[in-house]
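User: quick one
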Amino acid sequence: MTTSRESSDLLPAETETALDRAIDSAARHEGLFSLRAANIKQSAVRDVFDISIRPGLVSLAGGSPYLKSLPLEDLGRTAQRIIAEHGLEALQYGGGQGMEELRRLVCDVMAAEGIEGANPEDIVITTGSQSAQDVAAKVFCNPGDVILCEDPTYVGALNTFEAYEVDVVTVPMDENGLIPDELERIIGELQEQGRTIKLLYTIPSFNNPSGITLAADRRQRVVDICRDNTILVLEDNPYGMLRFDGEPLEPMRAHNPDDVIYLGSFSKIFAPGVRLGWALVPKHLYRRFYLACEAVVLCPSPLTQMLVTAYLTDYDWRGHLQAMRSLYRERCDAMLGALAEEFPDGVHWTTPDGGFFVWVTLPEGIDTYPLLYTAIDAGVVFIPGAAFSPSDEPSNKLRLAFSAVSPEDIVEGVRRLAPILRSAIEENRA
Ligand SMILES: Cc1ncc(COP(=O)(O)O)c(C=O)c1O
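Assistant: Done. Structure below.
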């Protein structure tokens, strides 16, 4: 490693002084970090975010929604009207719970998915589902407590839970989602070891990254197992309404108002830039959850709450959602078709019924992380599977996102990736 002293020939004097100062300050302040700060990591998705936007590259990495079909000019006029006519409210601090009208509309959105009769008083508007995950970990978990989650699971949740020094323990899935018998077995083993399990974090519909959905007939059993063991279910459902065909599956919260904290989000059904989601919290848990939300953000943005309220009242959001479901189905079909055409024998993948992702499995013994660099050189980006597991073990999986890329680019991206996988398989055999 080159030290600032060794590099002094190469650097102008003022740069050297700035560098020395930065090194000195870092050394003086290093001891001030909390123990938990060492657990705060950059997500692998963020790692490749800057690379993904390089011109010419096909990004099958980020789980961004398709926004081009939003009525942007109309929304612009709506935003202008909100500020011109209601600016003193829109640009002022608001209530910590979020605006009442939006909380009422959120009840309509949830009813469309099968959660009937929710009370707006049990909802807190959050800065996206991400901040609600943070609040849940903060409110319920002490260092060393256990959160159970699917294997694989959402990288942002893993990063949040680990930042609270929680021990994340995974439960295996099959093609129908979490395996209830495995859940029961793992809970039993942890309890025998004297561990305290606080939450089951689950993405039951179109799991990120696997695209797998928890079967309807397993949902109640999973809640019952958790209830019997005094474990809260943290149900994260940003993709539930993005089922390609048919009706959405009833969320686990639908018939379990006392045992499930339900997290919704406008990021995938409208736009992530509004940074708004919600938590529907059991009444007996609500106060502390809400106070913790308020302690982080004071209040969710009144301006974007008013924009979303207008979107839900003055626009055909249901029609837009329907159009998005068709668009994502078309893209998913393009990806599945290209995988079947291009990928070598020995590679398998999931067939999602909705959401944004396909999960690809290579033969045992291949680590997909180093393949990312070869892929970038070939003009395509994916997320290596290791990002979606709390273990530091290499992974033979990878995530492909089809949501934000045209069918033509999806096919091109898969074409660029296929020879890289073929070489990896050949090397692995040798
Ligand atoms: C499962 C899951 N939860 C939460 C989030 C973050 O959602 P939000 O934008 O509402 O914070 C994502 C984003 O990709 C996600 O996939």
